[in-house]
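Hi F.,

I've been meaning to write this up properly since the lab meeting, where we talked about keeping a consistent format for the predictions we share between groups. The idea is simple: the sequence comes first, exactly as it goes in, then the structure tokens exactly as they come out, then a line or two of notes. No screenshots and no reformatting. I'm using this chain as the first example so we have something concrete to point to.
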Amino acid sequence: MKRPALLIAAALAFAPFAANAEPAVIIPPPAAEQPLQDTGLETAVLAGGCFWGIQAVYQHVKGVTNAVSGYAGGAQKDALYETVGSGRTGHAESVKVTFNPREVSYGKILQIYFSVAHDPTQLNRQGPDSGPQYRSEIFPQSDTQQKVAKDYIAQLDAAHVFKRPIVTKTDSMKTPFFTAEAYHQDYAIQHPYQPYIVFNDAPKVENLKKLFPDAWRDTPVTVAEASKGN
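Output, unedited:
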């Protein structure tokens, strides 16, 4: 059987995706990038359009031990896919990225987020999806994460690396994260030929491989595999 990464690559070989996916942007790392640290596993919660694509990107990042699709920004009772889709719950489709700071820094996580995972200049939309549930938002898990994110956004805006200002929100501290339904987990890996994945999300994974070869891992970490270790 072909490995999941090879299935995605095969889909990319014949997919006319260029007009559908948000373009990747080469950006500098955070100016105040911290060195790799031996502080135990950390988490980052990121929103930027459909969670399938964000999850797929981070599943291929070295040092990431899990990437889970879910919802952040609203109440637990509303953390349901059909309800969030109304755009009136406060939730954003999000991904909780668990990573080892000895292998990948929070700054690198953000560099990938702004560069290939989504377009941070689009307000309440990404690609074909529109509504506040698809907004660009970082949910800081600590004061340090919030400062790093705010400083990085200011750095990128000052350097005019994007044609428009960054609209990413960073003010919701330690917002609860609610795991999405099981069928949303590992979706891009499980459905590599699904047209939405081929046109919108597989190109992001390919851009990660091209622009961040030092952070690329061929075999993605999956929620299914990560759950076996718990």
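Notes:
The two ends are 27 Å apart (CA to CA).
The domain at 4-228 is CATH 3.30.1060.10 (Peptide Methionine Sulfoxide Reductase; Chain A).

If this format works for you, I'll send the rest the same way.

G.
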